[in-house]
Amino acid sequence: MLHTINKSPFESNIIETCIRFIQPGDPILFIENGVYAVQAHNRFAMLIESVRKTNPIYALLPDLNARGVTTLIDGIKTVDYEGFVDLVEKHKVNNWL
Predict the structure, then answer these.
(1) What is the pLDDT of residues 13-33, one digit of tens each?
(2) Measured between alpha carbons, how far apart are the two ends of the chain, in Å?
(3) How far is residue 8 from each of residues 12, 14, 39, 67, measured CA to CA in Å?
(4) Which helix (H) or strand (E) element contains residue 3?
(5) Could you list the pLDDT tens digit for every one of the 97 residues in the chain?
(6) Phi, psi at residue 26, to the nearest 5°?
(7) Full-prediction pTM beyond 0.90?
(8) For burial by CB atoms within 10 Å, which of 2, 4, 35, 43 has the most?
(9) Where in the chain are the domains?
(10) What backbone phi and psi angles, to 5 degrees, belong to 92?
């Protein structure tokens, strides 16, 4: 299952809730303000790095660019809109709003 997170971790605890329910191998895609979670050297970096050991983590590149997020946690993959569509086509989606 693909999990999408669109809320900033600085204003919502959705990321912690999502992590409680993900299964190993489930991809997580950060979109909209959720991309702040994957910015390097923030207080969520250790949490993201631990999840990345068992789950692929993606961030939507246009949203990163729009928010000026340029330095990412190691191992975070970026996708454009086409990549976003590819992920949605391959997985059932759970939107954490």
Answers:
(1) 999 999 999 999 999 999 999
(2) 16
(3) 6, 9, 11, 11
(4) strand 2-5
(5) 999 999 999 999 999 999 999 999 999 999 999 999 999 999 999 999 999 999 999 999 999 999 999 999 999 999 999 999 999 999 999 999 8
(6) -65, 125
(7) yes
(8) 35
(9) 1-62
(10) -65, 150
Residue with tokens 């946690």: 73
CB-count exposure of residue 64 (10 Å: 0-12, 13-18, 19+): buried
Which tokens hold the place of 69? 């997020």
Query: What pLDDT score does 97 carry?
Result: 83
What would you report as the CA-atom Rg of the chain, rounded to the nearest whole angstrom?
12
